[in-house]
Structures are given as C-alpha cells and as structure tokens.
Amino acid sequence: MLFPQSKNIYFLLMNKKREPRKWIGVNFTCCNFYGRAYKNEVKKEYLAQCPKCGRVIRFIVGQGGTDQRFFEVR
Ligand SMILES: [Zn+2]
User: Which of 4, 23, 61, 67 could lock 36 by a disulfide, CB 3.0 to 4.6 Å apart?
Assistant: First the structure.
C-alpha cells in the first residue's frame, strides 16, 4: 500500500542511562524491507523511514517505554 493514511508511527522506548543504543532494527513489513533507525543526538530520538512508501517511524525515549531492540511495522 503506498502512502497510507497513518504514515507516521511512534514508539516509546525505555529510558536507560546505561548502554546507549546507536540504532534500532526496523522491519518494514509494508514493503518487505529491513532497515535501521539511527539516533539523532540533538533531538534525542531515533528515526527510520521506509525507502519505498515513505512511512516514517519515530522512537522517542521516555518513561514507561519498551526495552525492545527490534520492531516490526506493518
Ligand atoms: Zn513501506
């Protein structure tokens, strides 16, 4: 499906002081593509974009977030 209505997807990540992650694995099942979300040091978030349909995935660090390192996006 190209350019779905809910284009932007957000995930909340657990706020850990130790072991900072440089990237997070993202599986875009929408287009059968595997990519990575890299950390934006300025905004303190991770960003990934599906190269085929342009869907944007944001990972925001905060309280109550998940500890997953790998995410699947449909
Ligand atoms: Zn896609």
Answer: 23
Place of tokens 């850990």: 16
Record the pTM.
0.77
Q: What separation in Å is there between the alpha carbon of 29 and the centre of ligand 1?
A: 7
CB-CB contact of 59 with 39 (8 Å): no
What is the distance between the alpha carbons of residues 66 and 53, in angstroms, rounded to a whole number? 26
- Residue 17 Cα to ligand 1 midpoint, Å, equals 32
Ligand 1 centre to CA of 34 (Å) is 10
pLDDT tens by residue, 19-42:
567 889 999 999 999 999 998 888
Q: Where are the beta strands (DSSP E) in the chain?
A: 8-14, 23-28, 33-40, 45-49, 56-62, 70-73
